[in-house]
Amino acid sequence: MKHIDNLPTSPGKFKEKSAYIRLRHHFSLAKTTFWTLAFVGLIYISFFRSLHIAHSDSSRRFLRTSFYGPDWEKRVKESSKIGSGNGNGVCVLVTGAAGFVGTHVSSALKQRGNGVVGLDNFNDYYDPSLKRARQALLARLGVYIVEGDINDEELVRRMFDIVEFSHVMHLAAQAGVRYAMENPSSYVHSNIAGLVSLLEVCKSVNPQPAIVWASSSSVYGLNNKVPFSEKDRTDQPASLYAATKKAGEEIAHTYNHIYGLSLTGLRFFTVYGPWGRPDMAYFFFSKDILKGKSISIFEGPNHGTVARDFTYIDDIVKGCLAALDTAEKSTGSGGKKKGPAQLRVFNLGNTSPVPVSDLVSILERLLKVKAKRKIMKMPRNGDVQFTHANISYAQKELHYKPTTDLQTGLKKFVRWYLSYYRDGKMSDQ
Ligand SMILES: O=C(O)[C@H]1O[C@H](OP(=O)(O)OP(=O)(O)OC[C@H]2O[C@@H](n3ccc(=O)[nH]c3=O)[C@H](O)[C@@H]2O)[C@H](O)[C@@H](O)[C@H]1O
After folding, report:
1. Is pLDDT above 80 for 48?
2. What is its main location (predicted)?
3. What share of the chain is helix, strand, coil (3-state, %, to 5)?
4. pLDDT at residue 89 in the model
């Protein structure tokens, strides 16, 4: 006997209903099959993923122990040895040692007899071959650069286990004002997370090192009171780069306050010179002028002049060394503060802003090529119109006194540039 529900009210309807039931049955079967397959698939994927992770973890561990093995340790120790000059027991970990300022500072420290070990991740923000050439230059002076990231706390701790660094010169950073709109997270990764990772290690080691680190003139942001003094407000950043550097200054305050770390921030003003950064205007202007390509020169509202307090690398290096030499010891140990510690911020500028159009005129004369100038409105991408440093505080405390004007500094840069890129070939002479 058929169930009442299955009795046809009309043949068509019955036919229809049974087709519907078949379809429903078919669908529920397909659904069960689908979910079973999906479930099995998921188990399959997670099994192989865990195998892969286990494998890559163990291979990473293997790589780590083999890469950072006894030979590596020997090189780190060798590089940290204090020379016979006026080393004064100073041994410095320089982060960003393959960078522009990092290379110059490491070289100066080593040459005056300090122990120096570098750390750099050799990222490809700009041509890594230039970083490799700087590495080779430092290697000839006896400075070894560990290849790694400041976010790798385990690695940094390992370096402190091997060497008792008295100072850290923290120059590793994601630089560049305009690139922050393209890759914002790289700024957070290096300038905020990286700084915190480094300070976490510094606060917990014993003895704690004194730290000098690179802040930036960009923290003055939209200020129009010039020259910029350390006492001026810095709460109106115009770029994410500036915001991360400002955050760095606040983070420094916190680690000084809680853990007794001695911290000195240096606000660099548009540093230029030989071995410089190819992403900076003076560098790529030179390249483009020589290639006959047009260059964009920014102007402010109402055809206002855009100017920078361009500061030559040798003056910056003197400021960095003076900051290290006058840095007091950190007061904490094992993560505990024992008393108040030094906390400083200095402007390191040149005190004489030069319009970008004048920079181009100097380059034209030195390169002996006329630039194809394209004047354009300064894009809203983080740039500020004007920078000008008041350096009286650095003068008083560090005896900082810049001596190189833009004409002289660019002459040295152009000489280096032409020899390095001679005939389109690389040369580190
Ligand atoms: O002091 C700092 O803290 C910063 O200095 C540097 O930034 P900036 O002062 O912006 O240098 P840089 O890019 O060389 O532009 C120079 C001038 O050329 C203008 N400029 C730029 C590009 C262009 O195509 N045209 C142009 O006119 C431009 O408007 C500007 O007026 C560092 O890069 C940065 O990492 C940070 O350290």
Report:
1. no
2. Golgi
3. 50, 15, 35
4. 82
In a domain, 238, yes or no: yes
Q: Read out DSSP for 338-365?
A: -S---EEEEEE--S--EEHHHHHHHHHH
Q: Which long-range contacts (CB under 8 A, 24 or more apart) does 161-165 make?
A: 162/73, 162/76, 162/77, 162/80, 163/76, 163/77, 163/80, 163/91, 163/93, 163/115, 163/117, 164/91, 164/207, 165/80, 165/91, 165/92, 165/93, 165/117, 165/209
Rounded to an integer, what distance in angstroms lies between the CA atom of residue 375 and that of residue 76? Answer: 49
Instruction: Look at residue 88 in the predicted model and tell me its pLDDT.
Output: 76
Q: Is 306 in the pocket of ligand 1 (CB under 6 A)?
A: yes
**For residues 32 and 17, which has the higher predicted lDDT (pLDDT)?**
32
The C-alpha atoms of residue 53 and residue 60 are separated, in whole angstroms, by 10
Radius of gyration of the chain (CA): 29
Q: What predicted TM-score, i.e. pTM, was given to this entire model? A: 0.86
22 within domain boundaries: no
Q: Which residue's CA is minimally distant from atom 7 of ligand 1?
A: 270
Q: Is residue 92 in some structural domain?
A: yes
Q: What is the token pair recorded at 301?
A: 């509202």
Residue 192 forms part of a structural domain: yes
Q: Which atom of ligand 1 is nearest to the CA of 269?
A: 1
Number of folded domains that form the chain: 1
pLDDT score of 103: 98
Index of the ligand 1 atom closest to the CA of residue 272: 14
pLDDT over 90 percentage in the chain: 79
Spatial CB neighbours of 255, under 8 Å, sequence gap ≥ 6: 199, 202, 203, 261, 263
Q: What's the token pair of residue 91?
A: 């041994």
Q: Give the closest residue to 92 by CA, choosing from 202, 217, 174.
A: 202
CATH code of residue 252: 3.40.50.720
Which positions are catalytic? 241
Instruction: Give the β-pairing of 354-355 and 307-308.
Output: antiparallel
Chain segment 77-99, per-residue pLDDT in tens: 999 999 876 567 899 999 999 99
Q: Enumerate helices (H) and strands (E) in the chain, giving the number of each.
A: 13, 13
294 alpha carbon, distance to own chain's centre: 29
Ligand 1 center to residue 384 CA distance, Å?
9
Among 178, 383, 387, 413, residue to substitute to test ligand 1 (most atoms within 8 Å of Cβ): 383
Per-residue pLDDT tens digits for 313-328: 999 999 999 999 999 9
Expressed in angstroms and rounded, the spacing between residue 190 Cα and the centre of ligand 1 is 20
Residue 270 Cβ inside 6 Å of ligand 1? The answer reads yes
